[in-house]
Design a protein that fits this description.
The chain is α+β, with helices and mostly antiparallel strands. The protein is built from three helices and nine strands; from the N terminus they run αββββββββααβ. The strands form two sheets. The chain has a five-stranded mixed beta sheet with strand order 3-9-8-5-6. The chain has a four-stranded antiparallel beta sheet with strand order 2-1-4-7, with no helix packed on it. A hairpin with a 2-residue loop joins strand 1 (39-48) and strand 2 (51-57). The protein has one domain: Sandwich (Immunoglobulin-like), CATH 2.60.40. It is globular.
């Protein structure tokens, strides 16, 4: 760990020492372990040779119709997970749990898990926004699906607003810009 050199004439009063101590205790896990909030990653799939090549996409990356996207997630301690997208036409698409299943546990030992299928970007206009909703506690995933479908009714809101959920849930989103 890097040693901080403070000026010799710096005097910390008891209040400042307490505040500094609280900040250090609060930030120390993040400094040592990194950010432990659930992560959503999107990859562009390029076919080269015998296997697919994945290229990470950032928030607001440009995609085109017929591009292939794969979804990755690191749930950390929030292993109960729902992943879906809403596009510029208001279309809702569920990725995890897979349709027909109700198993929302994605336990990856804090390693990234790339879902086993890819998504073909369709002819939606303007954007595709991916949502990761997770919790440390089991929940009824249909509540999340309903909230996502409600948000999808207004694509302008779906582009910028979060789901209306309690603080028991973590939300992460990535948006891809559509250009054709």
């Amino acid at each position: 760990m890097k040693k901080m050199n403070l000026p010799n004439n710096l005097v910390l009063t008891p209040n400042y020492r307490s505040m500094l101590l609280v900040c250090m205790i609060t930030l120390l896990p993040t400094i040592l372990l990194g950010d432990q909030s659930p992560k959503l990653t999107l990859y562009s799939v390029g076919l080269g040779g015998a296997e697919a090549k994945l290229r990470p996409l950032r928030n607001m990356s440009v995609v085109h119709s017929d591009d292939s996207i794969m979804v990755g997630v690191i749930p950390y301690k929030s292993k109960y997970t729902v992943i879906f997208s809403i596009d510029g036409k208001g279309e809702f698409r569920q990725y995890f749990p897979y349709r027909g299943g109700d198993d929302i546990i994605l336990d990856t030992d804090n390693k990234e898990s790339v879902l086993g299928h890819w998504y073909k970007v369709d002819y939606a206009k303007d954007f595709v926004r991916f949502f990761l909703v997770s919790s440390k506690k089991h929940f009824d995933y249909m509540k999340i699906i309903s909230a996502g479908n409600e948000l999808a009714k207004d694509p302008n809101k779906a582009k910028t607003e979060s789901l209306k959920l309690s603080s028991d849930y973590n939300q992460a989103t990535l948006i891809l810009k559509k250009e054709d």
